[in-house]
Write a structure and sequence with these properties.
Layout lengths: L2 H24 L6 H8 L3 H29 L2 H19 L4 H29 L2 H15 L1 H13 L5 H19 L19 H9 L2 H31 L4 H29 L1 H22 L6 H27 L6 H23 L8 H25 L7
Length: 400
């Protein structure tokens, strides 16, 4: 392997770890919810608000990190973002009450989302079009282990250690990424940096938002995030209350759902360059619609585990399929504002999700009907955005 190839492989491994901080903010800890609630003496609804803190943090982290990375380069913001994750993880482990816990979970989310949006900008610095999707595919082959293994590992660990120890373990993993980030090579040429972080933020956001195709892609980014977080809020309770599985089985099932996301992403990466990015995105929306209809059909009946899992797999497969084409189409025209474009895509998604996340606590945890309604409405909105907004805007584009 040449020195250049070695450096590219190392970059892919590092970016995979940076992206993995997102799943590491949520997936290892869902099996610990009952233990965390018992420790702090709080009910299920209040505990679910810790997920609201996560979604708020995800939005805030991207809002600042993207423009910051466009202004001063990628290396320093990446180091700061990972450092925040480390701080939040260890502080969550030491939290004396639920409110400090929620606040520190928010800090973790700010760090993980910042790292992810800067990683997306680094990918855009390094490639575009088919090459960008290929690089993302390689990154997510590695990163895909994290959402697959994290819930399984978390479910096993909570049976032998305290939930606080689990936070310390993942804080330690992030600390290794923090050390690695100090060796990261800068990918944004100084001539392409946008100067003041906050002074030009509004102008950069405005420029990106003038792109009509980006507007439609923004809608899809929002709705796919909404349905994902509806699932993340509900699945610990659906698995335990509806399927009545034990914690070990729960971890395996949750991990298998993450595998369906990885399969969806890699499937779209394989077909999009030949079949078309927009067609692939549309197919993802159709799969999601099918999952929503299927879940509603069986939502009030006697649900068996295989039927339940097929509907969940299909919804998350659709989410995975949308990721590569969405990022490629959204960032391709905005190389000089890659951080800002990625940040806006993520920030608005998590802002909307944060605003409506209290509604997730009102959805039933003993039926698929609530979750399936969110899935169906979300993917129908995504298909409408493709048909009425994105497709007309990209009619004459080479990348579509």
């Amino acid at each position: 392997m040449t020195h250049s190839a070695q450096r590219r492989t190392a970059l892919i491994m590092f970016l995979a770890l940076a992206y993995a901080l997102g799943p590491f903010t949520i997936d290892p800890f869902t099996a610990s919810f009952p233990s965390i609630g018992s420790t702090f003496g709080v009910n299920t609804a209040l505990l679910q608000y810790s997920m609201t803190g996560v979604t708020v943090g995800m939005g805030l982290g991207q809002l600042v990190a993207g423009p910051f990375a466009d202004s001063v380069g990628r290396k320093i913001p990446m180091t700061v973002a990972i450092g925040l994750y480390v701080l939040g993880a260890f502080a969550s482990a030491a939290a004396p009450n639920i409110w400090v816990f929620i606040a520190m979970r928010t800090v973790m989310a700010i760090g993980s989302s910042g790292a992810a949006v800067i990683a997306a900008a680094i990918v855009r610095d390094s490639a575009t079009g088919d090459a960008m999707l290929k690089m993302l595919s390689r990154i997510f082959w590695v990163q895909g282990i994290s959402p697959l293994a994290a819930p399984i590992l978390g479910a096993q660990l909570i049976q032998v250690v305290d939930w606080r120890t689990i936070f310390q373990i993942f804080g330690g993993v992030a600390a290794l990424a923090l050390i690695w980030s100090l060796r990261l090579k800068e990918t944004l040429d100084p001539a392409k940096r946008n100067g003041s972080v906050f002074g030009g933020m509004g102008k950069r956001f405005g420029y990106v938002l003038k792109d009509r195709s980006y507007q439609g892609l923004l809608v899809i980014g929002v709705i796919t995030t909404v349905q994902l977080y509806a699932y993340l809020n509900l699945f610990p309770f659906l698995f335990l209350n509806l399927l009545h599985v034990d914690k070990s089985t729960y971890g395996l099932l949750a991990g298998s759902v993450s595998l369906s996301w990885l399969i969806g992403f890699q499937f779209s990466a394989a077909i999009a360059p030949r079949w078309g990015y927009l067609r692939t995105l549309g197919l993802a929306m159709i799969f999601g619609i099918a999952a929503g209809i299927g879940g509603l059909t069986i939502g009030t009946s006697n649900v068996t585990q295989p039927i339940f899992m097929v509907m969940v797999y299909l919804a998350i497969l659709a989410f995975g399929m949308s990721g590569g084409p969405l990022q490629t189409l959204a960032l391709a025209p905005h190389g000089d504002e890659a951080g800002t474009a990625a940040a806006l895509l993520g920030t608005l998604s998590f802002l909307v999700t944060s605003l409506i996340s209290p509604l997730f606590t009102m959805l039933p945890t003993d039926s698929m009907s609530g979750l399936s309604s969110v899935v169906l409405a979300s993917y129908l909105a995504g298909l409408a955005a493709i048909w009425f907004v994105i497709h007309p805007a990209l009619r004459h584009s080479q990348l579509r």
